[in-house]
Fold:
Amino acid sequence: MPVGVGFVPVLITIVFIGLPVALAVLYTLGKTGGLNETIARVAQHQVVAKHGFTLGAYRNFIDSKELRSDLWVTFWVTVVSTAALVALSVVLALFVRFSKGRVGRLVSTVYVVPMFIPTVIASYALVTFWQQNGKLAGILHALGLPSSWVPGFTSMGVVLGLVCTNIPFAVILLASSMHGVSDVLIEAARDVGASWPRVVWSVILPLCRLPIIIIVTFTAIGTLGNFTIPDLMGPNAPQMLGVAMTDYYQSYGQPQQAEVMAVLVFLAALALSGFYVWASRSERRRVSAQSGAK
Structure:
C-alpha cells in the first residue's frame, strides 16, 4: 500500500477524533483560549486557568451531589445491564444450540427481531407498554399486584430496554460460538458423569470466552454514553451521563461540565478497551499454546 494512502485513515482519525478530544480535555482543565474561545464566551459557571492547568471543573463535578448521582447511576446501569445481557444471552444461546424442535427454531427466529427495529421505535414501544398507565400496569392491577412494580421511567426500565435492544447482537455471537463446540467434547463430559450445569460451566463457556469478552466490552462501552434509551425510558433524576451531558451543554449553558462528563465516559471506555485488548490477546495466546501442545 502506498504511504500516502495509508496515511489517510490516520489523518482522518487525528482531525475528527484526536483534535476534538484534545480540545475537550484542555477545556476541562481551564484552557478557554484558541479553538475553545467561541464556546467559552457563552458558557456559564466555567473554571478558567490563570496559569497552567486547573482541576477546578473536576472538583466542581465531585462536589455536586446531583452529578455524583448521575455518575453512580451510569455505572450501576452499565454493570447491571451488561451482566443481565450476558446471563440471558447464554441461556438463549444454549437453548438454540441444543433444542431440535419447533420451539428452538422459533426462538432462533424471534430473538433477532429487535435488530431490525430502530432504537427510538423500540424504546417508545417499551415505555408505552410499561408506563404507569400502560398495558403492564393494567395486568398488574388485574392480578392484584402493586403498580410500583411497573418499570416505566426508572433506572431498571433503562436496564430492561438496553437488554432488549442488545439481545440479538449477544445471542448471535454466542450461538455461533456454541455451534462450534464439538458434540464429542460434550458427550465425553457426560460419559464421565458431568451434569449439564457442569458441562456448561467447564466445557462450553470456556470455549466461548472470547465472544463473552466481546459482548461485555462492546455492551458496556455502548451503555456508558447511551442517550436514546435513557432519555426516553429513564427518570428525570438521576440521569445517565449521556443524557446529563446533553442537558448541561444545550439547556443549562454549561459546556465545561458537559465535557467533564464526556472525558470521564471516554476514560471509562478507554479502560474497557484496554481490558478487551488484554483479554483477547491472552485468549489467543492460550489457544495458540494449546494448539502447540497438541
